[in-house]
């Protein structure tokens, strides 16, 4: 895992390039479950995009505006079920564009923060500790988890890595 703040932000940002590469796959591939009983590729990317949107709107943006954080520990199953429903209403192209937009909102907001701002702990909507650094670290792991699933899926379809 990346060590410095800049390296972590760059690693977090790099998933936008990966999603853009996935855009070259067909709508049919995007609408295929990544494994038996699992979400489709479109569902996975939508899930990630909506988590980015949630954390941006309820935490990152609030920090930048010097407002109280409203981010809370949500019911993950309910949030994820809603993201799957959302994915059904959008095209692959729209999901790719929205993913890049939402991730870049976060990147743009946190790029250039000094180390104190990056590591400062805030109280979230549940009165628990939240820091941008811990958030980015956690979501890099989240990205890697889903990338591993996607790469395994691509292998089952015999889609080579770029």
Would you give an account of this structure?
The chain is mostly helical. It has a single domain, classed as Up-down Bundle (Four Helix Bundle (Hemerythrin (Met), subunit A)). It is built from 7 helices and 2 strands. The chain has a two-stranded antiparallel sheet. Strand 1 and strand 2 (129-130) form a beta hairpin. The model has no long low-confidence stretch (mean pLDDT 93).
Q: Which sequence of SSEs, written as H and E, runs from N to C?
A: HHHHHHEEH
Kindly provide the radius of gyration, computed on alpha-carbon positions and rounded to a whole number of angstroms.
Answer: 16 Å
* Secondary-structure-derived class: mainly alpha
Sheet-strand content, in percent, reads: under 5%
CATH fold-type name: Four Helix Bundle (Hemerythrin (Met), subunit A)
Q: Averaged pLDDT, please? A: 93
Weakly predicted, low-confidence segments: none
The share of residues in helices is: 55-70%
Layout of SSEs?
Blueprint: H1 5-22, H2 27-30, H3 41-64, H4 76-87, H5 92-110, H6 115-119, E1 122-123, E2 129-130, H7 132-156
Antiparallel strand pairs: 1-2
List keywords for this structure.
162 residues, mainly alpha, Four Helix Bundle (Hemerythrin (Met), subunit A), 2 strands
């Amino acid at each position: 895992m990346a060590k410095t703040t800049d390296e972590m932000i760059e690693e977090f940002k790099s998933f936008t390039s990966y999603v853009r590469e996935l855009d070259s796959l067909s709508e049919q591939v995007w609408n295929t479950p990544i494994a038996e009983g699992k979400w489709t590729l479109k569902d996975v990317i939508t899930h990630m995009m909506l988590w980015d949107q949630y954390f941006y709107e309820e935490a990152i943006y609030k920090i930048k505006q010097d407002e109280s954080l409203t981010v809370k520990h949500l019911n993950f199953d309910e949030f994820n079920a809603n993201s799957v429903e959302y994915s059904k209403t959008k095209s692959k192209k729209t999901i790719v564009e929205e993913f890049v937009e939402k991730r870049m909102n976060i990147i743009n907001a946190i790029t250039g923060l000094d180390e104190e701002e990056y590591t400062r702990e805030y109280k979230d909507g549940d009165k628990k500790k939240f820091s941008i650094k811990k958030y980015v670290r956690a979501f890099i792991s989240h990205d890697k988890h889903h990338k591993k699933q996607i790469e395994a899926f691509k292998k089952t379809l015999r889609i080579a890595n770029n």
